[in-house]
Amino acid sequence: MITCHLRYIIDPHKLAGFEAYGRLWIRLVEKFGGKHHGYFMPSEGTSNVALAMFSFPSLAAYEDYRKRSFDDAECQAAIAMNEKDRFIISYERSFFRPVFDDDQGIKRAP
């Protein structure tokens, strides 16, 4: 399993637009076989940082999602939202391997 962590710098005056964008991507990631863990909006403290996390069974499955998303009309419409309203200033994408206790039944590489 691979988990993608996104750290966004967003326009704090356009939170509603970014939240609507996030709600779309939760469904879209799951449409392509991923498990979305949610978007995390600013609350207390920093007002311009938001986070998102989602997982795929493997890096290859994530790469397949990325490839297929470029040709998907719903994904392109979500991207167009930000291109029009510019609520995302920048973002960083990192990948992690989650660790669970043995009761989760997840196979791990040695």
Automatic annotation (TrEMBL):
SUPFAM superfamilies attached to this UniProt entry: Dimeric alpha+beta barrel
Domain NIPSNAP, first and last residues per copy: 7-99
Tree of life domain: Bacteria
The protein's name in its UniProt record: NIPSNAP protein
